[in-house]
Structures are given as structure tokens and as C-alpha cells.
Amino acid sequence: MKKEKIRKRKKTDLFDVINTLFLTILMVIVLLPFYFTVVRSFMTQQDFMMNGASLWPEHFTLGNYRDIFVGSNMLRSFGNSVLYTVTGVAFSMFLTTTMAYGLSKKNYPGRALIQNMVIFTMYFGGGLIPFFLLIKDLGMMNTRWAVIIPLSFNVFNLIILRNFFEQLPPDMEESATLDGANPLQVFWCISLPLVKPALATLVLFFAVGRWNEWFHSSLFLGNAQLWPMQLELRQILWSSASFAESIPAEVGRPSFSEGLKAAAVMVTMLPIMCVYPFLQKYFVKGVMIGAIKS
Q1: How far is CA 7 from each of CA 15, 20, 56, 103, 163, rounded to the nearest angstrom?
Q2: Helix-strand-coil split of the chain, %, nearest 5
Q3: Partner residues linked to 250 by β-bridges
Q4: pLDDT grade, residue 292 (50/70/90)?
């Protein structure tokens, strides 16, 4: 028995070593490009020409970030992205929570039909051209609604939240009803607080998706005044050389196209990176609960 336990420990230890080594290599592969992007955003053109991919900028500068905000519409696009993200997440969570709560009720009239119709859209869609024509016919082209409304629903997130609602004990809602609570109070005061980890996870999913969205914005928003940050970033990456030439030069420092690219990437990533730590504990808890229940 002792020999078998020792062998199991050795196998477990070997697996842990291999797993740790693999994850460490994967972490380095992921973090190195990110680190070099951060370093390049603080480099001068001279440093980049002399040292290339340096581990630390020899002459630290914030000039690239200054050029981004001076020579582009980054501030305006930042405001647009915040508006699209906050409004879009709120609208998406309203639709998702209400529909998931309704579909979690076994006695809901037509529950199976509605659920199957919703799931059907996961596998079959009309395609991009009908979608574009629909937005055009609704008069939402070149409006903020074209980004907020059509992308507000996600069937996969709906199914996740519905499963969480189905796990809630029905006795709690029945007790609240007997105490005089109406259905809205039961939903808001009883059910939603119990699925807080799932809600935080979905908020994170929706927020990341909204913040990084650029494809539909490029289709529906021809007016540059309405562009989110991702479209502004794409414009900078595509025309960084001409963009650098158009920026008023700072005294003693020419504009640096590679530094502009790195700074623009960091500016677009930073807000969502700041939000994640506040939702991390709920995100991990939600994933763990979902894994145990499944």
C-alpha cells in the first residue's frame, strides 16, 4: 500500500511539474508581446532605431501618448466607446436577465417553443447582407443605435444565466410570495442577488465584447464622429506613417510611428484591464459554480 501511495505521489508530482512548466511557457509566450508593446510605447525613435526590441526604454518618454491625443480623435472615440459599452451592457443585461428568468420557469406558457426558437438562432442566421439591409431599413445607419441595439442579445449567455436561475430553490420564491412580494420584487430582491456571480461574469463578457467591437461599427458608422476607439485604433495602425507626419512635433522629439501604434494599443486596452480586477472574484466564483453544477 505504501509503495502504491509513493508511486501515485510521484506520478502526481511529475504531472504537476510538466503542467507548471507548460503553463509557464504559455504565460511567457502571451506576456512577451504585451510587455514589448508597453516598452515600445515609452520609447523614443532614437532608442527604437538603436536598440529595437529593448527590455527597457533608455530614454523614457510620454511623448507617444501625447501624440495620440493631440493628433487623433482618441478622446472623442474614447467617449463613444464608454457610451456604447455602458449603454450596451445595461441593455444586454436587461434583456438577458428578464428572458432567462422567464425561461427558467417550468410552468411558463410556450416555454419550450420560445426556447427552441431562441436556440435556433445560434445555429442559423440570415447572413450579413440581410442584417445590413435590416439595419438600413430601420433607419439606424450612422446612428449610435446601430451599434447598441442589434448586438444586445447573446443566446449563449442567456442559456448560462437560465441554468443558474433553474438551480435556485423554488421554496424561497414561494415564501416571498406568501409574505406579499409581487413577481417583480421576487425577481429583483430574491433571485438576482442569488445569481450575482453569474451576473458579474456576464457583465464582464458583454463589456469586453462591446469594448472590442469594431466590425459592425465599420459597417454601420460611416461618420467618423461616432467611431469607437477600436475603429480609431485601426485607422492609426493602417496609416501610422502619414498619421505621424501630420502631428505637430514636440520640441526636440520627432513623432514616432511605431511608438504611436504601441501607445494607441495600450490606450484602448487599459480601460477594460482596469475593470477586470473588480469583477475577478465574481468571475472566478461564477465559473467554479457553473463547473460544479454541470
Answers
A1: 12, 20, 46, 50, 41
A2: 75, 0, 20
A3: 253
A4: very low
CA–CA–CA angle 115, 117, 123 (5° rounding): 110
Global pTM?
A: 0.80
DSSP string, 37-96: HHHHHT--HHHHHHHSS-SS-SS---HHHHHHHHHSSHHHHHHHHHHHHHHHHHHHHHHH
Is the pLDDT at 10 greater than 80? The verdict is no
Q: Is residue 195 within 8 Å of residue 41, measured between CB atoms?
A: no
Buried b (16+ CB within 10 A) or exposed e, 113-146: eebeebeeeeeeeeeeeeeeeebeeeebbebbeb
DSSP state at residue 102: H
Q: What is the pLDDT of residues 207-226, one digit of tens each?
A: 988 998 889 999 999 888 99
**Beta-bridge partner residues of 253:** 250
Q: Which of 137, 141, 273 is nearest to 211 (CA)?
A: 273
Beta carbons of 73 and 229 less than 8 angstroms apart: no
